Inverse folding.
């Protein structure tokens, strides 16, 4: 399974179908209705314009580390769009190796130099700039620009970020309605909590349970969002529908495609039942934007823009987390009061347990994956491994092996445990789990999970093995 083949079907899949507005421009803050002279933003901002540098995110993080909020925008942002951001204190033109696109050097709009913001450039020779650097400035130089030249205040923190985003969402949405696919993953949960704070009942969340969720996962989405945060939540139990479609389908890519397209179909059906929705909320975060390709950088992965909602279901996007990195999204979730178990949960693939119940999914093996995964997670938590290990799960292959139970021969399934560490999921090493912990997990799986007589530990790093089995 290659990175490019992911049928990630969370609603991020639809982020591109309407990211481009009628004039062919990406939606930007410039289209938000800002009242003349109004300034409600809590935090100052330094804008980085992407002129083909591979170090935009490094620079943004350096500025944020100084306590000043920083956003990365496309090089051709207009002055109006920049002004509508409402809190810009200075601009950095960040050039680099991808500065030439289709044979032409990318340029910022010339008006940008005349609109009063201090502008410096890095690897982008422009005499209109206050200063020109060949590489990223030293910390002292960056500090001098941010604090002395731009007079920015170090007021970037999650509380201020949330208040600013609440204000921006309210400006964008007004009294209209937003729809959100709430998978229960970190990004969609945090965006849901933020939108609930911003627009309350104007938000409708749809949680589709495809029957391939982990134990108690859908229940906890309902508990947190409906019962604790009082969200307007539509819960769709589509288990039978998904399992029906997947019956006898053994090919991994085919399974992923079915789960992905069925998810879009269920979500679309729910969207059509609702009236007067103009916006689609999305948990897009900054790495998604980079992976999907910016104007100067090629696409790394395609998994966020496969499929999508039909053409006639047109929504404008609301993406308040799109400038955050993963650790910041988690901090935002904690600040918004979400449970740590939700905010710090390990990565879980969109097709869920469907790619861990190998081959054609059967209900008995699906139950075995779900129950063994629950045991593994419980024991990892007890041993403190949940905070140490990046990803850990169980897999059930579609063959049986001979064993002995109650003095009689049995022919049952096996559970494979996988626990890996990685930085970027592109390569991974296995966790050397303590023997006693593994023994305890094995004993419990053999005693508590039906139809299982054998437990194995996967020793394979990535590459050559991928993290998931399908
Ligand atoms: P592999 O198996 O390619 O997985 O080594 C790398 C990481 O990606 C996760 N993964 C997915 N995540 N949608 C996702 O959002 C998917 O379809 C998907 N498939 C795999 C996997 O769990 C691992 O963390």
């Amino acid at each position: 399974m290659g990175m490019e083949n992911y049928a990630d079907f969370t609603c991020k899949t639809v982020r591109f179908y309407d990211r481009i507005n009628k004039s062919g421009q990406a939606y930007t803050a410039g289209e938000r209705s800002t009242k003349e002279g109004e300034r409600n933003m809590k935090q100052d901002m330094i804008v980085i314009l992407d002129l083909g540098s591979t170090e935009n995110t490094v620079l943004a993080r350096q500025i944020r580390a100084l306590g000043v909020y920083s956003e990365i925008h496309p090089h051709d942002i207009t002055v109006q769009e920049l002004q509508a951001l409402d809190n810009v204190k200075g601009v950095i033109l960040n050039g680099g190796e991808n500065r030439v696109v289709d044979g032409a050097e990318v340029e910022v709009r010339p008006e940008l130099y005349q609109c009063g913001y201090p502008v410096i450039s890095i690897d982008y020779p422009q005499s209109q700039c206050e200063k020109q650097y060949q590489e990223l400035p030293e910390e002292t130089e960056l500090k001098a620009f941010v604090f002395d030249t731009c007079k920015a205040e170090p007021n970037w923190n999650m509380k201020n970020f949330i208040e600013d985003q609440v204000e921006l969402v309210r400006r964008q949405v007004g009294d209209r309605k937003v729809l959100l696919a709430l998978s229960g993953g970190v990004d969609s949960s945090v965006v849901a909590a933020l939108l609930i704070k911003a627009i309350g009942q104007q938000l409708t969340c749809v949680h589709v349970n495809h029957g391939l969720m982990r134990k108690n996962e859908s229940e906890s989405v309902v508990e947190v969002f409906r019962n604790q945060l009082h969200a307007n939540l539509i819960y769709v139990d589509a288990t039978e529908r998904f399992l029906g479609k997947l019956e006898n389908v053994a090919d991994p890519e085919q399974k992923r495609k079915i789960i992905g397209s069925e998810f879009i179909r269920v979500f679309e059906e729910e969207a059509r039942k609702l009236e007067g929705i103009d916006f689609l909320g999305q948990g897009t975060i900054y790495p998604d934007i980079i992976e999907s390709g910016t104007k100067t950088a090629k696409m790394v992965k395609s998994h966020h823009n496969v499929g999508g909602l039909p053409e006639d279901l047109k929504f404008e996007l609301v993406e308040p987390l799109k400038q955050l990195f993963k650790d910041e999204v988690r901090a935002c979730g904690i600040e918004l009061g979400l449970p740590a178990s939700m905010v710090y949960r390990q990565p879980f693939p969109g097709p869920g347990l469907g790619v861990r119940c190998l081959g054609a999914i059967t209900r008995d093996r699906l139950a075995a994956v779900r129950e063994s995964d629950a045991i593994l997670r419980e024991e990892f938590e007890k041993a403190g491994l949940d905070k140490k290990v990046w990803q850990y799960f169980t897999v059930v292959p579609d063959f049986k092996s001979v064993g002995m139970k109650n003095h009689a021969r049995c022919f049952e399934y096996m559970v494979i445990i996988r626990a890996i560490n990685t930085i970027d999921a592109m390569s991974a090493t296995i966790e050397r789990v303590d023997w006693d912990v593994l023994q305890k997990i094995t004993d419990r799986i053999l005693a508590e999970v039906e139809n299982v007589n054998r437990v194995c530990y996967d020793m394979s790093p990535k590459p050559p093995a991928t993290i998931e089995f399908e």
Summary: The radius of gyration is 24 Å.
